[in-house]
Amino acid sequence: AISNMGGHACTAITCLTAQNSVGVTQVNAPPVAFLKEQLDTLHTDLPPMAVKIGMLGTADVAETVGQWLGEIRQSSFADDKNHKIWVVLDPVMISTSGHKLIDDDAVQAMVQDVFPYCTVLTPNTFEAESLLEYCRGDAKDDSVPQKLCTRSDVERAAQEIIRQCNVPAVLIKGGHLMLEGGDDEDDDETSYAEDFLLIR
C-alpha cells in the first residue's frame, strides 16, 4: 500500500514481544542508543513524509522517539516551512485480552514526549479507557465514561482525549468493543465492531 502511494517503507524497531494467539509473555525494548542510531541513519538517507509509531515499551524509548520527532520537525521546517510530517501513533498499552503491556512511566513519557507531535492517535477501547484515566488524574467528571460500552461513550471519550491530551485527531478502534443491536438508535440483533474518528 505504501509503495502504491509512491512511498518507501522503512522500519526502526522500538519493541519486541514474545506472543502467540493466547497472549504476550515477554516484552523487550532495544537499547535507546541503538534505536536513535537507527532512526538517524534512516532520516539521513530517506527523510520521512509520514511516521507510524507502535509500541513504545519503556519511558527511555518513548523519550528517545519524542526527541527524534522534535529533531525531524525542526529539520523539515528549516528546509520547507510548508512541509508537514504526518505522525500516527498507535499507543500500544493494553493487549487484545486486556493485559497491560507497558508501565506507568512509559505511558507518562509517551503522553509528554510523543503526543505533542502526533497528527492522529489510534487507541483501542481498552487504551482509550486507560488514557482517560491517566489524563483525568484526580479530577472527577461524571460526564466522561470510565468504561466504553456504547457509541455515545466512545464519542465522548474521543472528545475528552482530544481535549485532555491535546492531539488533533483520535481514531478509537472498535475491534475490542462488539456492539449489539439495540445500542443507541439501532434495533436489529446484529453484533458488529466500529471505528470512531474524531477530528478537532
What does this 3D model show about the protein?
- The chain is of the alpha/beta class.
- The chain is 36% helix and 14% strand.
- It has five helices and seven strands.
- The strands form three sheets. It has a three-stranded parallel beta sheet with strand order 3-4-5, with no helix packed on it. A two-stranded antiparallel sheet has the order 1-2. Strands 6-7 form a two-stranded antiparallel sheet.
- Strand 3, helix 2 and strand 4 form a beta-alpha-beta unit.
- The radius of gyration is 18 Å and the shape is globular.
- The two termini are 27 Å apart.
- The mean pLDDT is 86.
Mean pLDDT: 86
Label the overall shape: globular
Structural class category: alpha/beta
Question: How much helix, percentage-wise, in residues?
Answer: 25-40%
Percent strand equals: 5-15%
The secondary-structure element order is EEHEHEHEHHEE
Q: Compute the gyration radius: what is it?
A: 18 Å
Give, in spatial order, the strands making up the sheet with the most strands: 3-4-5
For the biggest sheet, the summary is: 3 strands, parallel
